[in-house]
Amino acid sequence: QKEVEQNSGPLSVPEGAIASLNCTYSDRGSQSFFWYRQYSGKSPELIMSIYSNGDKEDGRFTAQLNKASQYVSLLIRDSQPSDSATYLCAVEGDSSYKLIFGSGTRLLVRP
Amino acid sequence: EAGVTQFPSHSVIEKGQTVTLRCDPISGHDNLYWYRRVMGKEIKFLLHFVKESKQDESGMPNNRFLAERTGGTYSTLKVQPAELEDSGVYFCASSQDLGNTQYFGPGTRLTVL
Fold first, then answer.
1. Which of A78, B22, B82, B105 sits CB 3.0–4.6 Å from B6 for a disulfide?
2. pLDDT tens across A42-58, in order?
3. ω into residue B25 within 30 of 0, thus cis?
4. How confident is the model at residue A29, as a pLDDT?
């Protein structure tokens, strides 16, 4: 079982729709959770971090965390073609500051 | 404020040769991390420096890889001798304090022929 699992996609949504990206993780001791966006050939860029159960909103982005289900998600409202990228879920372990990444979900926003 | 920089952006070498990758973290960031992504796989942690000390090198694949951070500023990652399976993108990241956001560099794409 992979430590952090994501559907590779591509997830295709029309412009203006809500894109929902999901991630599950295996280490119950994980404390910190991150969503990075990566455009092709570019570096991963942090867009959201979440540390406690519930929702965290930042502009068009909402991160949701459910530690009991070991599940973290990212919602992108009013999706734009510029949101087309690979979204990486990353988890920080309880005994180390290294990030454990999922393989990423490719999002395509159709104009 | 300058971001994390990496050099070179792309390196093509033959199997058995040596390559040295460089990372300059954001100024003032004591924590420096190396990660790599090999073809079709997820980004994986290699090691973590706190200033000049190796805090965690559990992800280093074997003794062909040597990372240094003399003086606690920039870091180098040397692969000697390179093997075909070392091909991939090597990312460096830095953070100001432990647990803070890790900012990633653009990566070095290594191709071993």
1. B105
2. 899 999 999 999 999 99
3. no
4. 85
Residue B102 per-residue DSSP state: P
Given a cut of 70, the residues of chain B with pLDDT beneath it are 1
Rg (CA), chain A: 13
Q: A103 contacts in B (CB within 8 Å)? A: 41-42
B99–A contact, CB cutoff 8 A: yes
Q: Does A101 touch chain B (CB under 8 A)?
A: yes
Q: How far is A24 from B96, CA to CA, in rounded Å?
A: 28
Within an 8 Å CB–CB cutoff, is residue A71 touching chain B? Answer: no
Q: Is B49 on the interface with A (CB under 8 A)?
A: no
Given pLDDT bands bounded at 50, 70 and 90, which one contains residue A31?
Answer: confident
Task: Give the integer Cα–Cα distance in Å for B39 and B73.
Answer: 30
- Indicate which of A1, A97, A103 best probes the interface with B, i.e. most B CBs within 10 Å of its own CB: A97
The reply to whether residue B91 touches residue A45, judged by beta carbons under 8 angstroms, is no
Mean pLDDT of chain A: 93
